[in-house]
Amino acid sequence: MSRTQDPHRPSFPFGNAFRILPKGSSLSSKLAETLTKFEEKLGDRLSKLVPDNKNDVVSLSWMRRAIQSLCETHTDIKDVIAELHPVSDWDEKWVDVYLDNSVKLLDICIAFSSELSRLNQGHLLLQFVLHNLDASSSKQLMRASSSLDGWRQHISSKNPRVEDCHSILDNLIQSLNLPKVKHSAKGKVLMRAMYGVKVQTVCICNMIAAAFCGPARKLTDLHIDEKEKYLWANAFKELQIRVNTEIRDLFCTGRSTVLKELEAVDTSVKALEPMTRDGVKPDEANLFQDRVADLGNGAEKLSRGLDLLTKEVDHFFQIVLSGRDALLCTLRVSSTNSEIPESKAKGRTLFSF
Questions:
Q1: pLDDT tens figures, 196-212
Q2: Alpha helices in 214-284 (DSSP H)
Q3: What is the pTM for the complete model shown?
Q4: How far apart are CA 141 and CA 284, in angstroms?
Q5: What are the C-alpha distances in Å from 5 to residues 72, 221, 252?
Q6: Domain range spanning residue 181?
């Protein structure tokens, strides 16, 4: 993908999604403090995700920190819900949107787990390569060459679940404007806080999906309403500009992946392929051993990074699971005029978004 091939990148201005206060009204000091504390912490987390240099975009370690940040934010919104209890102005329309978005986010998390598992499966091929490269007999070099080719094919194959993230993310982006809460100050605070959660979640998932999908995934620039004065707005804009710009620049060079650890292994594989295919010349013995060592180190770092990120995704799943459970319990207890229909609550996978 190049800039000339993609001149019009999609962007979705969110508009005036959560104008927290109508003219002439105000929040109580306690509600204002709750909202300010949440937005300041969200802004600090987003700032910490801004990469220090280009080499950190996009690495598995950065992805892990990004998911950790989502875990912290979803834990925070759970605390906000507890502080605002009871919230009685939730209507069925908002609950429907909330549950629909939850299913979409669940699908994205399943897709990410699937891709991490697929990438980790390639580690077995690399281990077989390294085993055969312990000696430089022609038979073992042929086996190593075949395994290297198998690894390249495996890594370049497409994962339908990840590719499905394209439409799911676009739908989530377009659904960021949730129905407004008109008469409840608590409801307004929670809706505004939830908006921040959704923006961070969609933004990070959008970046990770692009890194997994390669050039096929067109990054979407998210835009927030400047009039709302979100305390996390500047940090969010800086993060999005830095990461999205670097991802696009990397893809413009013709790379099929922007994952640093995966790219390092691929570089080692390309360097070893001619030697395993054509044989190691006498004067290349030291160079051959150095390249084998590079592949071994790169493969170990990739495997370790995939394992740590997989654990963090699982952790995120559990946190948001309990978060949505807490919110649904609050709705059931506090709603006096409109209960959540059992047919909608029963059988749903509990997931927070």
A1: 999 999 999 999 998 89
A2: 233-252, 260-278
A3: 0.82
A4: 14
A5: 38, 17, 10
A6: 50-345
